[in-house]
Specification:
Layout (H helix, E strand, L loop, with lengths): L13 H7 L9 H4 L9 H13 L1 H8 L13 E2 L6 E2 L4 E2 L1 H11 L6 E11 L2 E8 H17 L8 E4 L4 H13 L3 E3 L6 H11 L3 E5 L2 E3 L2 E3 L1 H12 L7 E5 L12 E3 H7 L9 E2 L3 E7 L7 E6 L1 H14 L10 E3 L6 H9 L8 E4 L10 H9 L3 E4 L1 H10 L2 H4 L8 E5 L5 H11 L6 E4 L33 E4 L12 E5 L9 E2 L3 H8 L15 E9 L5 E6 L4 E3 L2 E3 L1 H9 L4 E11 L3 E10 L7 H14 L8 E4 L13 H9 L13 H9 L3
Parallel strand pairs: 4-17, 6-7, 6-8, 7-14, 8-11, 11-12, 16-17, 16-18, 18-19, 19-20, 29-30
Antiparallel strand pairs: 1-2, 3-13, 4-5, 9-10, 14-15, 15-23, 21-22, 22-24, 24-25, 26-27, 28-29
Helix pairs in contact: 3-4, 5-6, 5-7, 6-7, 6-10, 8-9, 14-16
Bound molecules: 5'-O-[(S)-butoxy(hydroxy)phosphoryl]adenosine (WT7).
Length: about 675
């Protein structure tokens, strides 16, 4: 039986994909790549180690945990089970210490920890900074003290809304240093999104930049924070805004504002890392759910850090002293940046590259220019970016020497085999293994992924579970699906990197992740972690992810809640009701189609379409701007008034009549909707 990939591209026909996904690419011998030794070098080794890691969790993770530097050893490895397991109880450690200070102590202070390249390219080339472990130590210590002076005490959530500058990583690590969980908000989000998140976390301090470079323009970050604070009015918890000057754009300066440089100069560089309990919160990261309110996903100090660092090491075969330069193109505002720019890379003492701007600034070859200039060895990006590169043309990568590359990675959504093949040939020179890493904000790190030296790669499949992950495809009663039968993606045993909660909402945490599947189908039995994705396992045991099972839309590898976009639309005077669905999109994988019904007195037309698009971008961010806006007289609903989004999905995608309409209230509605145009 052949796999039918997600309809990611309109132009891609099924025959082409069916041909491609039967291909298998065995892992290269490490000698061929000049990477040093594989950490896991064969499938036999993988199988044995994976079995041990799920059967003897205490033994396996107790041993791996020795890779971290502990201030106080732990008493136990795993205590309790789903939904609220505890890892490494009794232990104390600090995440910043494990990313920074320990390497200074071990004599590596002058080695480069972060390589940074700015977006603008002047006559002398782009601005490049290399930050050593010693410098990171000094900067995080000063910032830690500066934050304390602003009133930060252990446990306070600090919000970070910055562009991709080294100071963003410094801010994250400084928070970790003094025991303040951070909440990083992606710099592309709007004031409303900032206000919602700051309020939910009761954040007293916001760290931001005057502006950030994006495609030759300055994103007014500080202004967005100012507006968010104004929106919150009397209910704003914000007491201080610490602002780093990057673009020197004009900004307003008010009572709450503090200057980064002045604060750093005034602060002492002596700020020991705070001893933190294993289960203390390291950070909060908001992600969309299927209801309107964003969820604050809680990650802990020991389990998360260990899991991110361990998966980072194995998936990318990270190893110090091998001239490795690792680059993940994500923004630190997403989990990918948290785990695989900062916390999962730095503890491995391999330099992590941060790039400030867009992939097409000043031209479409910018990424390849960066790879060549810094001799990048591991490169990690998203399928949506790969599809854009394909569209921009082969000439861009072909202009550059990409021979330094050894391992390629993807993350965020299923990759269509055509994009996988292009990535392998044009970027990887048919030599680099591709790791298609499946995971989520909630999992903390990779849960299903090839290992570059062990796993056969199948274009479009994320292949095999990571160590310690007991992944399965099951039916609702918990029984495992037969090979090639689609079902629910679950994880049956706790792993260290898993989320520990939804901030301030225990019920939502349990309802969302632990209420769908129980062992043996008995609701009084052990719950399984449900990822919310559909998947199937093939006859070789490889996993193929089929996409979200709920209404959440995955745009360019980022989850958007339909509700968030719908509430933004309804907030516009012209809109009475809105329903939003995902629609196949050539570049983004999935785009957003919005169906709206208008208030009387408003004219349907291109003008209003544009206005509504701009309105959503303004309310949530450009990433949520609908690709299609359709005006409808009414929306298809069930008798109980629930909008039937699955019917809208078909209409948006231009497919007809594949759905069960027996619960539809008014059949005329559907006929009329089909007449609406894009
Ligand atoms: C959802 C998680 C994890 C960082 C980026 C997105 C989808 C992620 C893959 C992959 C197929 C994937 C899933 C998942 N997803 N990686 N390699 N193959 N699907 O993080 O916003 O938490 O989204 O992204 O649907 O549940 P996120």
């Amino acid at each position: 039986m052949t796999h039918k990939p997600q309809p990611t591209s309109g132009s891609q026909d099924g025959i082409e994909s069916a041909l491609h996904e039967d291909r298998v690419f065995p892992p290269p011998a490490s000698a061929d790549l000049g990477l040093g030794k594989w950490h896991v070098g064969s499938m036999a080794e993988y199988e044995a180690e994976h079995r041990r890691s799920v059967e003897d969790q205490d033994g396996y993770w107790g041993e791996i945990a020795k890779r971290l530097r502990w201030m106080k050893p732990f008493d136990s490895v795993l205590s309790g089970g789903f939904p609220e397991p505890r890892w490494f109880e009794g232990g104390q450690l600090n995440a910043c210490d494990n990313c920074v200070d320990r390497f200074v102590d071990e004599g590596h202070g002058d080695e480069v920890a972060i390589i940074w390249e700015g977006e603008p390219v002047g006559d002398g080339g782009p601005e490049i900074r290399r930050v050593t472990y010693k410098e990171l130590q000094e900067q995080t210590a000063r910032l830690g003290n500066a934050l304390k002076k602003l009133g930060a005490t252990k446990g306070d959530v600090i919000t970070i809304y910055m562009g991709m500058v080294p100071e963003l990583a410094i801010a994250m690590l400084a928070c970790a240093r003094i025991g303040c969980p951070h909440s990083v908000i992606f710099g592309g989000f709007s004031s409303q999104a900032i206000a919602d998140r700051v309020q939910d976390a009761s954040s007293k301090i916001v760290i931001t930049c005057d502006g950030g470079w994006r495609r030759g323009k300055v994103v007014p970050l500080k202004e967005n924070v100012d507006n968010a604070i104004e929106m919150m009015g009397d209910t704003s918890p914000v007491e201080h805004v610490l602002c780093f000057g990057r673009c020197h754009n004009k900004i307003a300066w008010g009572e709450l504002d503090r200057c980064w440089n002045e604060a750093m100069e005034a602060a002492s560089a002596d700020c020991p890392c705070e001893p933190m309990g294993s289960e203390d919160m390291l950070f909060l990261l908001y992600t969309s759910g299927s209801t309107g309110k964003p969820k604050g996903i809680v990650h802990t100090t020991a389990g998360y850090l260990l899991y991110a660092a361990h998966t980072g090491r194995l998936t990318f075969n990270l190893e110090p002293d091998q001239n490795q330069v690792y680059w993940c193109t994500a923004d630190c505002g997403w989990i990918t940046g948290h785990s695989y720019i900062v916390y999962g890379i730095l503890p491995n003492r391999v330099p992590t590259l941060m790039y400030e701007g867009a992939p097409n600034a000043p031209a479409e070859d910018r990424f390849w220019d960066i790879v060549e200039r810094h001799k990048v060895t591991q490169f990690y990006t998203a399928p949506t970016a790969i599809r854009a590169f394909m569209k921009w043309g082969d000439e861009h990568p072909k202009k550059h020497d990409l021979s330094s590359l050894k391992i390629l990675g993807t993350v965020g959504e299923p990759i269509n085999p055509a994009a996988w093949m292009w990535y392998r040939e044009l970027i990887g020179g048919n030599r680099c293994p591709i790791v298609d890493t499946y995971w989520q904000t909630e999992t903390g790190g990779h849960v299903i992924t090839p290992l570059p030296g062990a796993t056969d790669q199948h274009p479009g499949s994320c292949t095999r579970p990571a160590f310690g992950v007991d992944a399965a495809v099951v039916q609702r009663d918990g029984t495992e699906c037969e090979a090639d039968k689609g079902g629910l993606m679950v994880i049956r045993k706790p792993w260290p990197g898993m989320l520990r909660g939804v901030f301030g909402d225990r019920q939502r945490f349990i309802d969302t992740y632990f209420s769908t599947v129980y062992e043996g189908g008995d609701v009084d039995g052990t719950p399984y972690y449900t990822a919310g994705d559909g998947a199937r396992r093939d006859t070789h045991g490889n996993f193929w992810i089929m996409g979200r099972i709920d209404d959440v839309i995955n745009v360019s590898g980022h989850r958007m809640g339909t509700m968030e976009v719908e509430s933004a639309l309804v907030a516009h005077d012209a809109v009475v009701e809105a329903a939003v669905v995902g629609v196949p999109h050539e570049i983004k994988g999935t785009g957003i189609a919005a169906f709206v019904t208008l208030a009387s007195g408003f004219e349907a037309g291109d003008d209003l379409k544009k206005q509504l698009g701009a309105h959503v971008a303004d309310q949530i961010g450009a990433i949520a701007r609908p690709d299609q806006v359709r005006f409808a007289e009414a929306l298809p609903k069930t008798r109980s008034g629930k909008i039937m989004r699955r019917l809208l999905r078909d209409i948006a995608a231009g497919v007809e009549g594949t759905q069960d309409t027996s619960t539809l209230e008014d059949f005329n509605v559907l006929a009329k909707l089909r007449e609406t145009e894009e």
